[in-house]
Amino acid sequence: MLILGIQTCLPSGLVFLGEDEKILASRKLSSQSSSEYLLPLISSLLKKTNLSIQRVDALVITNGPGSFTSLRVGIALAKALSFSLMLPLVAVPTLDLIAFSLPVSGFICALIPAYRSSFFAAFFKKDADELERVGEYLFLSFDEITEQAKKFFPDEIVFVCFSADYLPRERPNSKISFFKKEVKLEKALLKWALRDIRAGRTVDPLILTPIYVSAPIIHKKKT
User: Fold this and answer.
1) Do β-strands 106-113 and 157-161 pair in parallel, antiparallel, or remain unpaired?
2) What contacts 24+ positions apart, CB below 8 Å, involve 175-178?
3) pLDDT, tens digit only, all 223 positions of the chain
4) What is the CATH number of domain 94-178?
5) 106 and 125 Cβ atoms separated by less than 8 Å
6) What is the DSSP string of 154-194?
7) Cis omega (within 30 of 0) on the bond before 103?
C-alpha cells in the first residue's frame, strides 16, 4: 500500500511517500514556506520514486493544532486529493503524533510552541503502540503546563517536542524529564495511517476540519 503523507502543522513541515512500513522518500518544508512549496514538493517526490499520483493508495494528514495558515493549506490539499482521486484519508492530531512517535511508555506531555510564550500541549498515557489522551488539548504557558503535570505525580512524565531545539529550559524536578533525541514523525505518521486504514478508521474529506486550540492572531495593516 502506497501512502502519501502531509504534515504542515509545525514550523518545519514534511511530505513523504511510504509503502507498507518503509519510507520511500521524504522531503522537509522550510519554515513558513508550506503554502508556496507543497505541491512542487509532492511532484518532486513522485518524480524521484518514478511514481504517479494515480499509484497512491491512501493519504494521511496532520490536522492540528499548529500553524494556522499552513494547517489550512495542507488540509485543503489533502481533501482535494482524497475527493478527486477517491483515496482513503486518515487524519492525525499533531500532538498525538508527537506522543506516538516517542519510543517510551508511560505518561507523556507533547508540546508545540505557539505564540505569546505559550504552547499547544496535551497529556497522554502510552503503552507500546497504544496511546490514550488524558484531558483536553491545551494552550498555556510552560509554567501552567508543568503545574497541570503535577496531577500525574508520583508517576514520572516525559515532555517531548517535535524538535529538542524548541523545548523550554529544563527545570529541576525529579518527576519531569525532557526527551531530547530526534523523533521520527514521518515513520510514526506512516505507522498510524497503516493501522487506521487496516481497521477501517478513515475520515470523510468533505467534513474534515482542522483542530484549533486557540484563535489565530490577526495582524492589521497599518494605515
Assistant:
1) parallel
2) 175/149, 176/146, 176/149
3) 999 999 999 988 899 999 988 999 999 886 555 556 788 889 999 999 999 999 999 999 999 999 888 889 899 999 999 999 999 999 999 999 999 999 999 999 999 999 888 999 999 999 988 999 999 999 999 999 999 999 988 889 999 998 888 888 777 677 889 998 888 999 999 999 999 999 999 999 999 999 999 765 544 555 5
4) 3.30.420.200
5) yes
6) TS-EEEEESSGGGPPPP---TTEEE--SPP-HHHHHHHHHH
7) no
Task: Give the rounded distance of the alpha carbon of 198 from its chain centre.
Answer: 20
Cell representation of residue 33 = 514556506
Asked if 13 and 70 touch (Cβ cutoff 8 Å), the reply is: yes
Q: Where in the chain is the domain with CATH 3.30.420.40?
A: 2-93+184-198
Superfamily of domain 2-93+184-198: ATPase, nucleotide binding domain (3.30.420.40)
Judge if pTM exceeds 0.85: yes
